[in-house]
Each structure stands twice: as C-alpha cells, then as structure tokens.
Write a structure and sequence with these properties.
heterodimer; A: alpha+beta; Ubiquitin-like (UB roll); B: 2 domains; 13 helices; 2 strands; about 0% strand; Ring-1,2-phenylacetyl-CoA epoxidase subunit PaaB (chain A); PaaB (chain A); PaaB_sf (chain A)
Chain lengths: ~100, ~325
C-alpha cells in the first residue's frame, strides 16, 4: 500500500433522529460522520431520508449523549417493580361499578 | 471476572437470543460474538461500498435518461447501505477509520462478486436481477438477526433493495425483447454472471465452517445450500420469461424434490477470487484506496472550516 499522509482529525460521530410525520415523535434512525452540525444535517438528509422518510431531522454529536448502563438495570429500574399501586388493577372494586 | 462467572453470563446471553430477545450495543456479550459481528457487518458494509464500482462504470453511458437516473439512485442507495452498516458496526466499539483501514489494507474481505468486470450494458441488468436477487435472499433473514443495530439496518436495506432487482430485470427484459444483437448481449451477461451469483451463497454446507455458531446467533437462519437452492428455484422461471437460457447443462427440474437439480460449481474459481486473483480484485481495491486518499484534503478542509467557525462563535459570544 502507498504511504499515507496521516489525516489531521477525523470527522466526529453524530446521532440522527427523524420525525417521519407531524404528530409523531423524532425517532433514532442511526448515526453518521460529519465535520459540523450543518453538514451532519445534510448528510442525514442524503443517508436517511432518500424516500420521504421524514419531515424533520435532529442531529446531535454522539459524545453529548449520556447513556444508562444496562449492567445497572437492576438498581435503576427495580424501584418500579414493587410499586404495584401505580397500576389501576391494584384497586379492588365491585363488578357493579361501571366506566371506571 | 472468573471463568465460572463468564460461563454464567454466556448462558444468560444464549437464553436471551433463544427467546428472540435482541442484543443491544451496551449489553454484555461474549467477545467472540462481538468479533464475529464486527467481521460480518463490516464485510457487508465493504461489499456495499465496493459494489458501487462495477455499476458506477456505466452511469455515464446509460442508454437513456430513465436508465441513468435509476442507476444513479441505485448506486446512491448502495452508498447509503454501506453507511447504515458502518454506523451499526461502530456501535460495537470499532472506529470507522479502523474499518476503512482493514478494507484498504486487504485485511477485510468484501463480496467476491464485485471482482468481476461489467463489460456491457447488459451486465447492469444482470447485476440487478441476479446479484441483487441473491443479496436479497441472503439479507432478508438478517432482518431478524439477534444484534439490534444490524437487524434495524437490514430492515432499511431490504426495503430499498427490491427496486434494485426490478430495475435490473427490466433492463434484461427490454434487451431480450430487442434486436438479435441485444438479446445476445443479455444472454452473454447471464452466462457470465450466473455462476458467480451462485457462489455468493458461500461454500457448500459440508465446507462451511461458521454455520453452526451463526445459526445459534441468528446471523444465519438457513444454510448456504438451502439459500442457493431457493435462489435457483425462483430465478429459473424468471429466465424463462426472458427467453434466455441458464448456462448449466445439468439444470433439471426434480419432481420428487420439487426443486431444480443443478451442475457442479467451480469452487477453484471461487477460492481464487476470494484469495485476490479475480479479474478485478486489484483494480477495485486501488480505486477505493485512491478515492479515500485523494479525498483526504477535502475532509481536512471541512474539519478546519468547522473548527474555525466554532472558534468564531466563541469569540462573538465573548
């Protein structure tokens, strides 16, 4: 292989969120590399919406996302498990009561 | 972690996959699962990227504007598919640069089919019909594979792929209804692409080393031979509609199996091409490396511009 000039800096990674139509939320579509936010938007248009998949695009640099660790799912989500009183079925009502 | 703990985690992991639960990037996974996925997904991405080259060869010479816009859109889709797959691979903790480096140094493979030349316009028809047809059969089961980002990328890829095959078949249909010379050109393309397309499903089951593990991880749902048979059975009637003949004298309907019997595949040729001795291996890789290296100044300039803009914004704010 020919000797390569070391590239100065690689384009950062961006996460792409697309609203497929008004009334729906933006959904994560994937990621891509771009030098800045404007280019990330343009690239997202070309990569993820070639067939009218969206009416709105959000991009955010991946490094700004803080994610929970699935290994800590126990501690993180456990408090919800024993709070059955948050659900309507927890409450005993006679069958005669309608519309509730 | 002790060996016992890892074994325990592996058992939980296997059960998750068996229950059809997806594995997401930050979940614990066996190192072999990670490595196998990096290898397969990046090979898949590389194939999409290198796959643009044989077809790109005909964009400027497409016979009509209709054909040209369709071919441009198809090649652009392939770039898109490569990008979906690269970004899905990156979720496993490997960088885009590493992946490119593996491709450019020849360490990573891509589908051997793209090491064959596109010498006539009919080759564009044959690629869409046969190569994309074979790719669809390989890819559809991957929409349900166990690794979430791969499965999601494949859903998108498969949605877009059917236009590719139809545009190819339409080219073949037009040529085979055309003049004698056009029909001969279509037949010649079929003759050259048929066997390499059958090779796209990989070695026969008794020679394939990865099948058992890949089945367990749902990287494969059917074996190479089953998929190859499926391709042949659905493609032969399509060739009949075109009035073209499949270049295999042993091809014969087997009433008992309700499938076509077919001739011996030239596996020597397959391995030669895999090892880098196909008609276009060097040219394809060189074109790809040149594109990357010649584009370096553009990438650097874009980065410099972005940094300068960011600095300006800060100064303004101060």
């Amino acid at each position: 292989m020919s000797d390569k000039k070391e590239q100065k800096k690689n384009w950062p990674l961006w996460e792409v969120f697309v609203r497929s139509k008004n009334g729906l939320e933006h959904r994560h579509f994937g990621s891509l590399h771009a030098a800045d936010a404007a280019m990330a938007l343009e690239n997202a248009r070309d990569v993820y919406t070639r067939r009218n998949e969206g009416v709105s695009i959000w991009v955010v640099e991946s490094k700004h996302i803080t994610a929970s660790n699935p290994e800590h799912n126990g501690e993180l989500f456990e408090p919800a498990n024993d709070k059955v009183y948050r659900h309507p079925t927890f409450y005993d009502l006679p069958d005669e009561v309608k519309h509730m | 972690m002790s060996e016992k703990e890892i074994k325990n985690l592996e058992e939980i992991f296997d059960q998750k996959i068996a229950r059809d639960e997806k594995i997401e990037p930050k979940d614990w996974m066996p190192e072999k699962y990670r490595q196998t996925h990096i290898r397969q997904m990046s090979q898949h991405a590389h194939s999409e990227i290198v796959g643009m080259l044989p077809e790109g060869n005909w964009i400027s010479r497409a016979p009509s504007l209709r054909r040209k816009v369709a071919l441009l859109a198809k090649v652009q889709d392939e770039a898109g598919h490569g990008l979906y797959l690269y970004s899905a691979t990156e979720t496993l903790g490997v960088s885009r640069e590493e992946l490119y480096e593996q491709l450019h140094s020849g360490k990573a493979k891509y589908s051997s089919i793209f090491n064959y030349p596109t010498v006539t316009w009919a080759d564009i028809g044959a690629i869409g019909w046969l190569v994309d047809g074979a790719a669809i059969i390989n890819q559809v089961p991957l929409c349900n594979t166990s690794f979430g980002p791969y499965a999601r990328a494949m859903v998108r890829v498969c949605k877009e792929e059917s236009f590719h095959q139809r545009q190819g078949y339409e080219i073949m249909l037009t040529l085979s209804k055309g003049t004698k010379a056009q029909k001969e050109m279509a037949q010649d393309a079929l003759n050259r692409w048929w066997w390499p397309s059958l090779m796209m499903f990989g070695p026969t089951d008794d020679k394939s080393t990865h099948t058992a593990q890949s089945m367990k991880w749902k990287l494969k749902r059917k074996t190479n031979d089953e998929l190859r048979q499926q391709f042949i059975d659905q493609t032969v009637p399509q060739a009949e509609i075109l009035g073209l003949s499949i270049p295999d004298k042993d091809l014969k309907w087997n009433e008992e199996r309700k499938s076509y019997d077919f001739g011996e595949i030239n596996w020597d040729e397959f391995w030669q091409v895999v090892k880098g001795h196909g008609p276009c291996n060097r040219e394809r890789l060189q074109t790809r490396v040149n594109a990357w290296e010649n584009g370096a100044w553009v990438r650097d300039a874009a980065m410099a511009y972005a940094e300068k803009n960011a600095e300006r914004k800060i100064k303004k704010a101060v």
